[in-house]
Amino acid sequence: MSIEPLSWGRGSTSHDVGLQSEGSGAPGAQHWSAPARSANLEAVRTALTNDGSLGAVITGGRGVGKSSLARAAVSDLGADVWSLQLRSGPAGANTPYGCLSFLLARLPQAYMGSPTAILRGITSLIRSDAAGRRCIITLDTTGSIDDMSAGVLLNILLTGTAKIIAVAPKISDLPADFHWLLTDRRLTEVRLSNLNELQTRQVLLSLLGHRVSASLVTTYHRMVGGNPLLLKALVTEQRLSGNLVLSDSVWTLRDKVVLDGAASLDDIVRSRWSRETPETREVIEMLSCARRVELSRLTAVYRAEVVADMEDAGLLEIDDSDHRWVSLREKYIGDVVRSWISIARRRELRTALLAGTEPDPAGMTVEELMAFAAWTHECEAELSPALALAAAEAAVQLFDPRFALAYADMLKRTDQEWVPAQRQKAGAYLQLDLPVQALAALDDISQPELDSLGAEEYARVIAAKARVMLWHPEQAGKVPALLAEARQRLDGAANDAAWPHPAVAAANRVALSEFEYRAFVGDYAAMIPDLEAAADAARNPDTAYRMQSAVILMTALALTGREMDALSLMRQLGGQITDASHVVGLREQFTREAYLVLLVAGQWRRCIDLLGPHGNGAYDHLPYRSAATELAAGLAYVYSGRGEAALDPLISAVAQLELQPLQSALRCAYAATALAHAQTGNAAQARKFLAKLQRTPGTSGFTTESIIEFCALVAGRWLGDSEAVAGLKQSSRRTMAAGLYTVAGISLLAATVNGSDADFRLLEDIADRRQGPLAEIARLVAVGTRTKDAKTLLAAGEIAATLELDTVEARCMALAVDFARQDGDSISARTAQARLDILAATVANLPIVPSSGSPLLTARERQIARLAGRGASNRDIALEMGVSVRTVEGHLYQVFTKLGVTSRGDLTGLV
User: Fold this and answer.
1) What is the DSSP letter of 85?
2) pLDDT score at 33
3) Rounded CA gap, 600 and 421, in Å?
4) Statement: residue 11 has pLDDT above 50
5) Separation between Cα atoms, residue 66 and residue 60, nearest integer Å
6) Which CATH class is domain 26-193?
7) What residues contact 119, with CB distance under 8 A and at least 6 apart?
8) Cα–Cα–Cα angle for 772, 774, 778, rounded to 5 degrees
C-alpha cells in the first residue's frame, strides 16, 4: 500500500487529476478511521439529506481523514445514491474543465460549441448516469478549480441535479462561489483536526479488532500527534517488525518503538524533507538526535530567524519552562530522521551543540539525563563515568530497566563509580523480576571493595543488598543480621557526630532499611513508635530519612486501623514533596504508598485520580509504568465492586506483564482479574485466572501478598467456594493478631456475606478499633445483620453510597429488604427495594438476593414507574411508550406489588 506524502505545512498537493474510483488509492485504506468521527459523519450526512442544503465542505490538514470521511458519508446513504468522484490537482486552475475532463470527453460534438452547451451537456450526462437516483458529487480539491469547472458545478448544485461533498485543506482553496454558499448556509463546513487520545483508541480498536493496551494508545498517539494517516502507517510497520503483538486477545508493544527501516513513514518524511532549506534540515537533524535543546543554546548554534520561522511553520514547539526547551512538534519525524544520520554526523552535531563541554549531571533533570545519554550512546561515544552512573540512576527512577543496565555496563571496575553502578544494576534487575541476577550484581562487589567505601556509599550498598535479599525466600531471614553488622560498623562514628556528618546519614540509611524490611514482612504495628520518632522534624533534620520514614508511617497507620490519621498525614506529606524533590525516588514511593492508603480506606475514586497523567514527557508512559498503572486502576475498580469496569485495564495489564514481567505484578494481575470476572458472573474465566495464579510462583511483600490473597479468596467466595470463606476468616484473625485491624476488617467484611453471629461480633469488635467511613460501614453491617435491623443496614448503605461501593450497598439493601418485610416496615422495605432496583443496573452479579423480596423491576417497569411517579396518567404513559393502556395497567400492578406501595405518590423518589 502506498501512502500519499505529507508536506511540512500540512497543505501539500496530489498530482492526480480526474476520476477516482471508489476502491482506488491509499485514502481508501483510511476508511477504518471513521469510527472516531461519528459526530463529523453525522454532520455531513445531515447536510446531504436536508432539503435546503446543497452539501458539505470538509476541511482540515493533510492526513486527518477528510477523504475517508467523505467516502463513509456517501457509503452510509446506501445503494440508492449514485456517487461521482472528482479530483482537482495543482494544474487544475490552468486547465478549463480540468476536474470534469473525463465527462467532457464523453459529450457528443454537438455540445462542444459553447460554454452554455457544455454546461447543459454535462448536467444532462450526470442525470442520465444517475438514472433517477440521488447524485452526490465528491470533489477532492488539492489545488484551485478553474472557473469553467466551478461554473458547471455551481449550476449542477443550484438546479438540484446533485449535492456535493467538497474536500479541501481550507475554505480559501475553494472557488469564490462556494464562499457565498457557505455564508448563506447552503453548504455546511465540517472541520477535521487530528485525533485526540480517546479517538486514537477507537481507531486502533477498529483497525486491530481486539483490546489495545493503554501504553500502545499513548505511545502511538504521541508519536504521530493523532494523525490517522500516520497512525495507519505506524501500525502497519510495527506489525511487520513484530513489535506490535497480540497477547491473550490484547494488542500491546513488545518493546519500545523503533522506526529504523519503517518504509512507509520513511517515504512520508523524505517527501517533506526534500522541500526544506539546508538550515532547516540541520536544525531538524540536531533536534532528532538531541530530542530537545534549550532555546538559548539552539539559537547560539543556528540563526534565531531560522528557529522562529520553523516555529511559525509548526515544525517546532517551545515549552513555557524557564529553560525554554525546543523540540520537534511531531515526534515521529525525529525518530525517522535519526535513523538516516550516520555516526560521524551524529558526533559532529553533538560537538557543535556542546561546544567542547559536557553538562554537569548534578544540574540535569532525569529526563535530560536520559536524552543526553541516549544521544551519546547513539553516537557510539563514551559517556563519562559520572554521566553514565547518573543516567543509570535516572533510568531506574523512570522505570526503564534495560537502559539502566546498558548505562551501568559502561562503567569499568577501575572507575570509582563502579560500585554505585552495581547498585543501579541490581535495582534494574529487580524491576525486570530477575532477583537472582540482582543479587549477583551486588555479590560481585568484593569485601575489600566494600571495606574501602565511605560510610554513605557503604550504607547504600547494604540497603540495596537488603532490598534484593527480600526477594529471595532463603535469604530474607538473613536481612536483620546484615543490617546489624552494618550498624555495628557505623554506630561508632555516628555516635560522635551530628547531622549532616556522612556517618549520621549512613546510619539513617541503614535504619530506613530496617523499616523497609519490617514493612516487607508486615510488622507495621510494632514499628509505629520508631517511625513516629524518625518522622519528627524536631528530632530529625535529615530530610530524606524523615520523609521516607513518614511515608512508611502513613501506610502503617492505614493498615493498623488509623485510616483517618493516615489520610491526614498523606495530605501533609503531599504538600512537602516538592520541597524534598532532591530525594531520589521519594515522589514515586509516596505515590505508591498513597495509593495503598486510599485503597484500604475505601477511597477508590481518589485512587483513580492519583493514577492520572503526571506530565507530558515521553518517559512518563513507558511500557513497564503503563502496565503498573493499568493494574492499579483495575485493582481500584475490583475493590469497589466494579468488575466490568476493571476488566479492560486488567486484561491489558496482564497482556503486558506476560511479555514483560515486573516483580510480583503478574500474580497480582491474575488475582485481580479473577475477582473481576467473578464479580461479573463469568465463573469460567474467573477459574481460568485463579489457575494461572496457582501456576505462577513468586515472592512479594506483605501488602502485595495481602492484595493477592484477598482478591483470590474473594473471587472464590463469589464462586461459592466454602474454603475461600474459611480462608478469609483465617486471614482476618491472623492480621488482627498482628494489630493490622484495617486488613482484618476488610477480609472479614468480605467473608461474612453469609456469616454467623460470632463472625458479626468479631467484625464489630474490629470496626471499633478502626477509623473512618469504611469502618463505620463494617460496624453497621455487623450490628444490623446480627440484630436484623433494616434501618441500621439502610444507614450502612447510605455511607457505602457516598463511597460509591456499589456491591457493599447492594448487600446492605438486600438484607434490609428481608428484615424490613419480616418486621412489617413497609417504608424501609420500599426504600431498600428501590435502591436495590437501581443498583441492579450497575451491579451485574448481586452479592445477596432478597429471600423474601419480589423480583427486581424490569427496564420497562422502571420506565413506567418513573412516568407514573411524575403524575402522568395511564393513557399519557401508553402514548409516550407506544403500548396499550391495558399494558400500562398491568406493569403498574407489578410495580406496586414489588415495591409494596399503594399509590402513585409513593413512587416519587423510589425509582
Assistant:
1) E
2) 64
3) 37
4) no
5) 7
6) alpha beta
7) 151, 152, 155
8) 120
In eight-state DSSP terms, residue 189 is E
Average pLDDT over residues 310-330: 85
Identity at 56, one-letter amino acid code: A
Concatenating the DSSP letter of every residue in 219-265 gives HHHHHHTT-HHHHHHHHHHHHHHT-EEEETTEEEESS----TT-HHH
Q: What is the mean pLDDT of residues 62-81?
A: 83
User: Taking a C-beta distance cutoff of 8 angstroms, is the pair 390, 410 a contact?
Assistant: no
For 425-430, which contacts have Cβ atoms below 8 Å and span 24 or more sequence positions? 425/392, 426/464, 426/465, 426/467, 426/468, 427/396, 427/401, 427/464, 428/392, 428/395, 428/396, 428/401, 428/402, 428/404, 429/401, 429/405, 430/467, 430/468, 430/471, 430/663
In whole angstroms, what separates CA 587 from the centre of its chain?
20
Return the pLDDT at 636.
94
Q: What is the rounded (10 degree) CA torsion for 558, 560, 565, 569?
A: -50
Whole-angstrom distance, CA of residue 550 vs CA of residue 561: 17
Angle at 488 between CA 482 and CA 494, to 5 degrees: 125
Phi and psi dihedrals of 190, rounded to 5? -120, 110
How far from chain centre, in Å, is Cα 142? 37
pLDDT for residue 23 is more than 60: no
**Strand ranges of the sheet holding 81-88, from the earlier edge strand across to the other edge:** 81-88, 134-141, 163-168, 55-59, 187-191
Cα angle 526, 528, 534 (rounded to 5 degrees) comes to 130
Residue environment code for 550-586, b if the CB has 16+ CB neighbours within 10 A, otherwise e: bbbbbbbbbbbbbbbbbbebbeebeeebeebeebeeb
- 83-96: average pLDDT: 73
Other Cβ atoms less than 10 A from the Cβ of 787: the count is: 13
d(CA 208, CA 129): 38
For the segment(s) 859-907, the CATH number from 1.20.120.420, 3.40.50.720, 1.10.10.10, 1.10.340.30 is: 1.10.10.10
Q: Distance between CA atoms of 24 and 18, rounded to whole angstroms? A: 12
435, 471 in Cβ contact below 8 A? Answer: yes
Which regions of the chain carry the CATH code 3.40.50?
26-193
Long-range contacts of 230-234 (CB under 8 A, 24+ apart): 230/6, 230/63, 230/265, 230/268, 230/332, 231/33, 231/195, 231/200, 231/203, 231/204, 232/3, 232/29, 232/30, 232/32, 232/33, 232/207, 233/3, 233/262, 233/264, 233/265, 233/268, 234/262, 234/265, 234/332
Q: Using pLDDT thresholds of 50, 70 and 90, give the confidence band for residue 618.
A: very low
Cβ burial 309-323 (10 Å sphere, 16+ → b, else e): bbeeeebbebeeeee
Domain limits, CATH 1.10.10.10, in the chain: 859-907
Distance CA 840, CA 834 (A): 10
Cell of 161: 441535479
CA 821 – CA 100 distance, rounded (Å): 79
Task: List the one residue out of 357, 379, 356, 375 whose CA is nearest residue 367.
Answer: 375
Residue 743, all three cell numbers = 486488613
Residue type present at position 47:
A
Q: What is the DSSP string of 462-485?
A: HHHHHHHHTTSHHHHTTHHHHHHH
Using CA atoms, how far apart are residues 595 and 570, in angstroms rounded to an integer?
A: 10
Closest CA to 197 of 223, 234, 236, 229: 223
Residue found under cell 524536631: 538
Scanning 561-620, the segments in alpha helix (DSSP H) are 563-574, 586-600, 604-610
Indicate the average pLDDT of the chain. 84
- As a residue count, the chain comes to 911
Helices marked H in 611-682 — which ranges? 623-640, 643-659, 665-679
Lowest mean pLDDT among 505-509, 531-535, 832-836, 879-883: 879-883
Going 836 to 842 to 848 to 853, the CA torsion angle's sign is positive
Can you tell me the distance from the alpha carbon of 815 to that of 781, in angstroms, rounded to the nearest whole number? Answer: 9
Max mean pLDDT range (376-380, 496-500, 672-676, 750-754): 672-676
